Amino acid sequence: MDTYAVFGHPVAHSKSPFIHAAFARQTGQALLYTAIEAPREGFRDAVMQFRAQGGKGANVTVPFKEEAYRLAGVLSERARLAQAVNTLRFEGAEIYGDNTDGAGLVQDLTVNLGVQLDGSRILILGAGGAARGAIPALLAQGPMRLTIANRTPQRADELAREFGALGLVAASGFDALAPEYDLIVNATSASLAGDLPPLPDAVLAGAQFAYDMMYGAAETPLLALARKLGCPRRADGLGMLVEQAAEAFFLWRGVRPQTQPVLTALRQQLQQA
Ligand code: NDP
Question: Has this prediction a pTM greater than 0.85?
Fold first, then answer.
C-alpha cells in the first residue's frame, strides 16, 4: 500500500491523518497516512528514512516548512514564491516540493465562504511562512489592494518589496492602518498564545470579513473581538486546513476529494473534544 505521512514537531495534535484517511475512503484510494514526529534537528534524516522505506509523499508542518523547501530538488512556482514547502512528493530520485497553503486559503474563501476577492481590499496580518504562502495566491485573484501589517515592520516591508511586482502590495504599521478593508486575514501566530495582533478596533469593525488561519474548539481571540465589534462575517482556518490537504491529495493521487463532508466531520470532532 502507498504510504504518506505528516512530519512536524510536535505532531500528535495533527488532523492530517484523519483528513487523508477520510479522503482515501471517499475516493477509493488505497493508502496509509501516519504522523511522524521528527526531532528538531532531524527532519531531513526522518524524511529520507521514510522515503527509503517506500514512502510516496509527505506533508510538512511547523517548524519544518523552510527546511522542506531547502530539501526539495524541484519546486513548484508557488513553493518558490512562498519559500516554504508543506507538501513533498517522491518520484524516483527526485524530491518535488509544493506549497498548497495559499491555494487552500483561496479555495476556502472563494468557494466555501463565497468571498469575492476580485477588486477587494485585503489586509493581511503577519509576515511569516503562512503570509508568504497566502500572498501570491490572494494576488492571483485580482484584489484592488493588499496591505501587509506585521509586529516586526521590516518583515512586512520585505514581503511588500518582494511581491510588489505581482500586484498592488504595500506594508503598513498597525498604528497607521485605516478602516478601509473588505477582508482581514490573520496570518500571525498570536492566537496560539491567546493573544491579539495590535490591530486598531476601527479597522476590524470596518471590515466585511475577518478570517483567522488559526482554528480550535473555541472562537479565536481575533474572531471573538470581530464579532463584538460588529464585523458581519467571520471564519477560522479549519476550511483552509482541509482545502490545503485536498490540494496535496490531488498532487499525490490525481483525484480531487470532496472537502465539505470532511470539514463537517472535523468541525463536529472539534466541538465534541
Ligand atoms: P511564523 O512563525 O512563520 O510567523 C508568525 C507570524 O506571527 C509573524 O509574522 C509574527 O510576527 C507574528 N506574531 C507572532 N506572535 C504575535 C503576536 N503576539 N502579536 C502579533 N504578531 C505576532 O508562523 P506561520 O506563518 O507558519 O503560521 C502563522 C499562523 O497560521 C499559525 O497560527 C498557524 O497555525 C496558522 N496556519 C494555519 C494553516 C491552516 O491550514 N489553517 C496553515 C498554515 C498556518 P514577527 O515577524 O514580529 O515575529
Answer: yes
